[in-house]
Design brief:
Layout: E1 2-10, E2 13-17, E3 25-28, H1 31-51, H2 62-67, H3 69-76, E4 80-85, H4 102-114, H5 119-133
Antiparallel strand pairs: 1-2, 1-4, 2-3
Length: about 140
Amino acid sequence: MRYVALIDGKKGAYGVVVPDLPGCTSQGKTIDAAYRNAIEAIRLWVEDALADGEKIPQPRSMAEVVADRETRNERNAGAVLVMVPLVRDVGRPKKANVSLDEGTLAAIDDEARAHGLTRSAFIASAALEKIRRGT
């Protein structure tokens, strides 16, 4: 699940607003930091809402957010739109089969051992790191 967010500001001070999650905001010194912080802000917003027994709003599509008059005004003032993933740790492992090149798998296993992790934990942490970087 991904939410559209607006990032605006200037060098050293960027703010993030997630229109579909009322009150969900974040900030950062760089655009990249603001993006990473927005991932955390969305996660916390969702956790708080669920703890309060609230229903989580479904994200609107990029086209729907672009068509929104308030969003259009923000964009005209210089805000940019980004897609921010909802990354939740629900505490339940789920088995998944993946196919990897044998050499890649050997390198993953070596690195996992070097970091004191299982293969699964290493792959999960690498994937989350990539998601949080937005690349």
